[in-house]
Design a protein that fits this description.
By secondary structure, the protein is α/β, with parallel strands linked by helices. The chain has helices at about 5-15, 15-25, 30-35, 50-55, 85-100, 135-140, 165-180, 185-204, and strands at about 40, 60-65, 70-80, 110-115, 150-155. Helices cover about 40% and strands about 15% of the residues. The longest helix has 17 residues, at about 185-204. It is globular, with a radius of gyration of 18 Å.
Length: about 200
């Protein structure tokens, strides 16, 4: 079993009971209104072929829309624990492979879960990845792929205000405490959450 944070986060959000409250608390309101999050399911490999596995995409979700048009979309969940400028081309590669496998194109929303010692300052738009003057951007923009991703930066979040499961809240507190070298300082809060979590588990 791989005990790394990447594996723990991937396994946690592969559980729809953990993922649905998290996305309900973190996705933009306009996007939430367009989705029926209760239909969220982990995509079991229709678009994740052998060539894609080497890129270690984290989780691909299928979600039905509230209006029924399109019938469903996909949410691509990617985890980063360091500022990585390659995220743009990495996501572009994932998106190309997913769209390539679709019989009828439907939207794929990239979502990046980030935590690290440094703030995320790379932006979220693919075109912003290019260092161009305003004039150059005007000329070349029609020829550039254009997408953005939703960013969850744990360092900017007040975890206590998120309507998420106790397990995810505890996990986020632990991860942030490790990232900020404050695990010892926050042990009391973590233990209190753990006590509540295990008490509820016994009652279930």
């Amino acid at each position: 079993m791989d005990p790394t944070p990447d594996r723990i986060i991937r396994d946690t959000f592969s559980d729809r009971e953990e993922a649905i409250p998290f996305f309900r608390s973190t996705l933009p309101s306009g996007l939430l209104a367009a989705l029926d999050l209760d239909t969220l399911e982990v995509e079991q490999g229709t678009f994740i072929d052998e060539s894609m596995k080497e890129y270690r995409t984290d989780v691909l979700f299928r979600i039905q829309t509230a209006s029924g048009s399109p019938a469903e979309i996909y949410l691509l969940f990617e985890h980063k624990s360091q500022r990585d400028p390659r995220i743009f081309t990495q996501l572009l590669s994932y998106l190309a492979r997913i769209y390539e496998r679709q019989d009828k194109p439907v939207p794929v929303i990239p979502f990046v879960f980030y935590h690290g010692k440094k703030a995320w300052d790379l932006g979220t738009d693919f075109t912003a990845h290019f260092k161009l003057t305003d004039r150059e951007r005007q000329i070349f923009a029609p020829y550039l792929p254009d997408f953005r991703f939703e960013l969850f930066d744990l360092g900017d979040q007040d975890v206590e205000t998120l309507t998420i499961t106790l397990y995810v809240k505890m996990l986020l507190q632990i991860i942030r405490s490790i990232d900020t070298d404050r695990l010892d300082d926050n042990l009391r809060d973590i233990f209190e959450l753990s006590e509540i979590f295990f008490s509820e588990q016994k009652k279930a």
